[in-house]
Inverse folding.
């Protein structure tokens, strides 16, 4: 979805309520009128938003609300279907519904597919998201090359270990850089997070269960910040990233430590859990 | 279409027995041989691959087979024939050259291998005025590195070949007539200031004595288009230096001329390290320029092209056997078709793609 860059902090309420229909966030500053107006309107919108992705924008075009992330496509545009197998099916094999859907899509307006979403067999959405997060200033070429060099570095390090190890250990050593990457990020995901909630004029850090997307985002964000900041000036990013990924794969290293710190803080502030109202 | 049953030629078949039926198959070079024959000259990505797989495997391809055929039938009484390997970027010119060098080393030829002539015309920090000829400039660092590698590659010849002239280095040191060539090389390595002159002497002596028949000489230069282009080097007064004014280049040009007999000259063109040449240029006329082409004329051009389907399949099989392709989808038909499309059967691109899959 095409999103414009707007300052996030303006209307945080909308940002979160647009994405997670079921989890509103607390109002930051007491008397901000859009936020007060938003709550009932958004509640109404949420009632209808058990709907398909494309229609979300239509639902929340209510007066008085400004969306933080919005796209130039109107509500009538459908998402493109990127799947070679879907289009290769001969007409005879289609079921009633699929036939109907095909005919429908011939007349509907369809959004343009983003350049990064391909029907390549080697494509991985997690890798694409991570590359986008590593990207600075729109330099996707550099970010992608760093990502590929990281995967290559991980692979070569694992091959070194494989050749140096004995026969029994060779069965345990994982050489696929993609499985290592996915497992490392999964190991770094926190289970519980802290959210600042305003009560009686003070902000309290309240432990809160995090949704899937927030957890994945936090894992990737921690990995990238750690590699950017805690490396030697002359060390290259792929080398550092591959090192950190391998450590996270084995549940060691600074990113895992940060996850554990977050868990400990949540455990320490256990008493404040009552401040959560959702 | 996948050709089933592409096997690798793992056995150490004597290189002389490589024929057309071996095209597309890989052969193994033992690692000790690698260190002895190639102290320098292998492409860096190939070195990384050798380190990762713990084995060095080269694919036997048509250009190399053609060259081997010519080399096997060389007439050592005729002047040295010049063979020029040319092709687009990443097609395997340098590795074909390495194949030839390995063959000749096994046949006990003396290998004069300049790994990359482009390194001698750019990024040189210390240029000294030559002691031998005031107009020319010395490159002590590059010359000494090359001499060290030359010594590793051709140990056994250094004691056999005798110098035919007396060379005076400075007031205290000189090399007598009849002393082994190893002494000249040692002098060049220890006294870095005289390294360029030592290289010049080595080249001159080898050229003179190759006709005598004690040894066969193979001159292998990678990136020969550096000898006749421009350099990026400048003097202290910021005036540009032409390649002729560098002693190393001047001596190498004399080597590449075909006025000696008793060996062969195999050259490779390369745009990758070249200076002031457009990226898409790969033909000899474009890369060598008028001067270079006229000097090298007549030569035998050998085109190195991308993989044909059989070679591509063989390369993929090789990677699969070493379990280099770890991605699950890479084993499937769709994955192979995609690799074919993305790399356009270019060997260099395929290697880079498979590195992260």
């Amino acid at each position: 979805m095409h999103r414009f860059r707007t300052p996030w902090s303006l209307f945080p309420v909308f940002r979160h309520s647009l994405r997670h229909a079921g989890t509103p966030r607390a109002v930051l500053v007491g008397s901000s009128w859009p936020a007060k107006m938003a709550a009932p309107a958004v509640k109404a919108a949420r009632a209808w938003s058990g709907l398909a992705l494309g229609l979300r924008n239509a639902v929340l075009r209510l007066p008085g609300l400004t969306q933080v992330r919005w796209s130039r496509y109107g509500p009538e545009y459908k998402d493109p279907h990127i799947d070679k197998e879907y289009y290769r099916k001969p007409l005879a094999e289609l079921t009633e519904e699929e036939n109907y859907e095909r005919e429908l899509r011939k007349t509907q307006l369809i959004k343009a597919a983003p350049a990064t979403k391909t029907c390549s067999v080697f494509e991985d959405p997690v890798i694409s998201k991570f590359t986008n997060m590593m990207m600075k200033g729109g330099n996707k070429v550099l970010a992608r090359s760093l990502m590929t060099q990281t995967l290559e570095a991980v692979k070569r390090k694992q091959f070194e270990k494989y050749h140096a190890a004995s026969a029994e250990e060779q069965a345990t050593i994982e050489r696929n850089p993609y499985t290592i990457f996915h497992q490392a990020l999964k190991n770094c995901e926190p289970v519980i997070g802290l959210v600042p909630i305003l009560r009686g004029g003070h902000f309290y850090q309240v432990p809160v269960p995090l949704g899937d997307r927030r957890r994945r985002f936090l894992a990737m964000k921690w990995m990238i910040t750690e590699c950017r900041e805690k490396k030697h000036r002359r060390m290259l990013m792929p080398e550092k990233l591959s090192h950190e990924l391998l450590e996270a794969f084995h549940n060691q290293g600074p990113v895992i430590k940060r996850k554990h710190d977050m868990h400990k803080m949540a455990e320490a502030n256990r008493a404040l859990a009552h401040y959560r109202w959702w | 279409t996948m050709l089933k049953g592409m096997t690798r030629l793992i056995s150490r078949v004597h290189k002389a027995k490589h024929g057309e039926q071996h095209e597309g198959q890989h052969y193994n070079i033992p690692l000790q041989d690698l260190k002895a024959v190639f102290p320098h000259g292998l492409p860096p990505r190939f070195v990384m691959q050798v380190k990762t797989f713990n084995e060095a495997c080269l694919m036997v391809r048509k250009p190399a087979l053609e060259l081997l055929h010519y080399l096997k039938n060389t007439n050592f009484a005729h002047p040295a024939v010049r063979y020029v390997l040319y092709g687009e970027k990443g097609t395997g010119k340098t590795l074909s050259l390495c194949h030839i060098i390995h063959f000749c080393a096994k046949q006990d030829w003396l290998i004069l291998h300049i790994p990359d002539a482009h390194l001698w015309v750019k990024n040189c920090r210390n240029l000294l005025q030559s002691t031998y000829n005031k107009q020319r400039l010395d490159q002590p660092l590059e010359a000494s590195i090359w001499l060290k590698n030359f010594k590793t590659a051709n140990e056994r010849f250094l004691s056999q070949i005798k110098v035919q002239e007396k060379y005076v280095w400075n007031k205290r040191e000189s090399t007598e007539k009849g002393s082994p060539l190893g002494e000249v090389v040692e002098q060049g390595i220890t006294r870095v200031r005289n390294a360029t002159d030592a290289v010049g002497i080595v080249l001159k002596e080898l050229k003179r004595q190759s006709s005598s028949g004690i040894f066969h000489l193979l001159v292998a230069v990678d990136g020969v288009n550096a000898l006749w282009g421009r350099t990026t080097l400048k003097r202290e007064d910021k005036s540009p230096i032409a390649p002729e004014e560098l002693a190393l280049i001047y001596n190498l040009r004399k080597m590449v001329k075909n006025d000696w007999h008793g060996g062969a000259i195999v050259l490779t063109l390369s745009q990758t390290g070249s200076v002031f040449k457009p990226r898409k240029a790969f033909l000899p006329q474009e890369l060598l320029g008028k001067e270079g082409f006229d000097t090298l004329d007549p030569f035998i051009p050998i085109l190195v092209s991308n993989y044909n389907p059989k070679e591509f399949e063989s390369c993929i099989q090789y990677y699969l056997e070493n379990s280099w392709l770890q991605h699950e989808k890479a084993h499937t038909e769709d994955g192979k078709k995609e690799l074919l499309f993305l790399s356009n059967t270019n060997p260099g691109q395929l290697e880079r793609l498979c590195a992260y899959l």
Q: What stands out?
A: The radius of gyration of chain A is 23 Å. Confidence is low (pLDDT under 50) at residues 1-59 of chain A. Chain A touches chain B at residues 120-122, 148-149, 151-152, 155-156, 159-160, 163, 175-178 (CB under 8 Å).
